[in-house]
Every structure is written in structure tokens, then in C-alpha cells.
């Protein structure tokens, strides 16, 4: 099944150079990618009619159907997150009206899926954007300790639960070891050329991510001038949630851009 490519905006270039659009948007795409994939599903509750809602580009959730895909296309897009040598034997999840379900049982421990806008942090402006399609393929370590968070959050979100209810349920699941602690070496591929990560710029970015049990990526040089590594909190998009973050286990995501898409074709290179 051929994966449908999302159209680029007028003026986008096909060269592998770091064009002007990437210079303007690489940082925002990096932040987005840290929160989009299955690693950071939604903790949201929108107050309809508030001033903040009026200013937001997507003030409320669209009908659930706007976020769903044809099943075969979703399977193909999920597989395109990683090179075929990895994704061909991976477990594939697809989104339904009640949450993620297993479409194909794999054999190598990897889990591939397509996150939607509400897979993002609750303070991300595009968390209700129905165009978002973020393909990801987690390695076995992430699939055991990160994917369960995604599935729990997504199911509760689609059931209409509030941010507070979702967070309390996550804390309970982590405390009781229902969801295992982060396993060493947990990482994820996001190398699909058919993903749509944001309305900004070129909409996509070929990269890999690493999950670490620390509050930030300073020991990795993340976010330092000239560093190719971008780091951010798993839990929130902005640093304005110190009190909430303090009640959660330290968890950060490190992002590193790569020079090719999962099919081996060149991808734009960029620095954060």
C-alpha cells in the first residue's frame, strides 16, 4: 500500500539543503516532535469560550472522525516511521474511536503507530489540529515503558476525561508498576516522509528520539548553541508547570535530526 504524502506548502523546495523555512521552524518542529509521537499523548481539557481558546489556532477538539484514517493507509504510514528492515516485523497499532488497538502483531518487539494532534502536551497550541499525522516506531524498551502511557492517555482522552483525571490515573499506573519504569536504551524512529507534524514550515522532520529518566538533557549538551541535540520534557511543552512536573517521574526526550527518510532518500538537514 502506497502511503499518501501530505502536500507541501507553496514555495517549499525539494533540495536537501537547509532552506529558509527550516531556519525559521526547525526549533518549533523539534519541540513538536518531542510531544507528538506516541510518547506524549494528550492530557487535555479545553475551557470553551475562554480568552485563551479564542486566541488558539485550534481552540477545541474536532469531531473524532476528523482524526481517523483508512485502516490500510494508517498501517502503511505507521510502518514508514522506520526503515523497512525494522518496521516489517513490528507490531502496528491503529487509532479507533475508543483508543489504539493492535492491527498487526509483530515479532521483533518494536511498536509502530501514528499519533494525532491530541497526542501532544496539553499546552501545545496545535493539540487539536486534525491534520496532524505523526508516524513513530518505538524500540522494545520504549514499547514496554512509553507506549502504555500513550494508549492509556489516548483512551481516556477519547472517553472525555479531564487533564486532572488522566494525570491521576497515570500516577497510579506508574506507582503500582502497572506501567513499568523507563527501560534503559528506550528510543524511537520518526523518519517518515509522509508525516505531518505541524502547520509550520515544511511540516515534517526526519529524526530519532531517545527517552531519558532525567528532568533535562544538559548532560547530553541538549539545546546548547551549535549542538545537534534538542531536549525537552516529556510531560509539558513549556516550563510553566513546575508544580505538576514535580509530582511525576523525571522524563525527558532527546531529539536528533537524521539525513535520510526511512526509505533511504535524502532528508533536509538542520540544526536546532
Would you spell out the secondary-structure blueprint of this structure?
Elements: H1 20-36, H2 51-55, H3 71-79, H4 84-87, E1 91-96, E2 99-104, E3 111-115, E4 134-138, H5 140-145, H6 147-158, H7 163-175, E5 187-190, E6 207-212, E7 229-233, H8 242-246, E8 252-257
Parallel strand pairs: 1-3
Antiparallel strand pairs: 1-2, 3-4, 4-5, 5-6, 6-8, 7-8
Can you summarize this structure?
The protein is an alpha+beta fold and 272 residues long.
Distance between the termini: 34 Å
Overall number of strands = 8
Main sheet properties: 8 strands, mixed
Percent strand equals: 15-25%
What class do helices, strands and sheet pairing give?
Answer: alpha+beta
Tally of DSSP helical segments: 8
**Order of H and E elements:** HHHHEEEEHHHEEEHE
Low-pLDDT residue spans:
1-29, 31-54
Strand order of the largest sheet: 2-1-3-4-5-6-8-7
Give me the Rg, rounded: 17 Å
Quickly count the domains.
1
Q: Helix amount, in percent? A: 25-40%
Mean pLDDT: 81
What best-fitting shape do the alpha-carbon axes yield? Answer: globular
Amino acid at each position: 500500500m502506497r502511503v499518501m504524502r501530505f502536500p507541501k506548502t507553496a514555495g517549499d523546495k525539494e533540495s536537501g539543503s537547509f532552506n529558509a523555512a527550516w531556519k525559521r521552524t526547525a526549533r518549533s518542529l523539534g519541540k513538536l516532535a518531542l510531544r507528538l509521537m506516541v510518547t506524549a499523548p494528550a492530557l487535555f481539557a479545553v475551557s470553551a469560550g475562554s480568552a485563551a481558546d479564542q486566541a488558539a489556532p485550534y481552540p477545541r477538539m474536532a469531531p473524532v472522525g476528523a482524526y481517523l484514517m483508512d485502516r490500510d493507509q494508517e498501517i502503511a504510514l505507521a510502518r514508514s516511521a522506520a526503515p523497512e528492515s525494522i518496521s516489517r516485523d513490528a507490531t502496528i497499532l491503529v487509532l479507533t474511536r475508543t483508543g489504539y488497538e493492535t492491527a498487526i502483531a509483530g515479532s521483533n518487539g518494536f511498536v509502530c503507530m501514528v499519533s494525532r494532534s491530541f497526542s501532544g502536551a496539553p499546552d501545545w497550541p496545535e493539540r487539536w489540529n486534525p491534520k496532524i499525522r505523526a508516524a513513530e516506531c518505538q524500540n522494545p524498551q520504549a514499547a514496554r515503558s512509553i507506549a502504555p502511557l500513550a494508549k492509556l492517555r489516548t483512551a481516556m482522552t477519547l472517553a472525555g476525561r479531564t487533564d486532572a483525571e488522566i494525570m491521576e490515573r497515570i500516577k497510579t499506573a506508574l506507582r503500582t508498576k502497572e506501567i513499568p519504569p523507563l527501560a534503559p536504551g528506550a528510543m524511537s524512529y520518526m523518519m517518515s516522509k509522509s508525516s505531518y507534524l505541524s502547520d509550520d514550515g515544511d511540516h515534517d522532520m526526519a529524526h530519532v528520539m531517545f527517552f531519558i529518566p532525567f528532568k533535562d538533557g544538559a548532560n547530553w549538551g541538549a539545546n546548547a548553541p551549535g549542538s545537534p541535540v534538542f531536549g525537552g520534557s516529556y510531560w509539558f511543552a513549556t516550563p510553566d508547570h513546575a508544580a505538576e512536573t514535580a509530582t511525576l517521574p523525571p522524563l525527558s526526550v532527546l531529539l536528533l535530526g537524521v539525513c535520510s527518510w526511512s526509505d533511504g532518500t535524502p532528508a533536509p538537514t538542520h540544526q536546532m
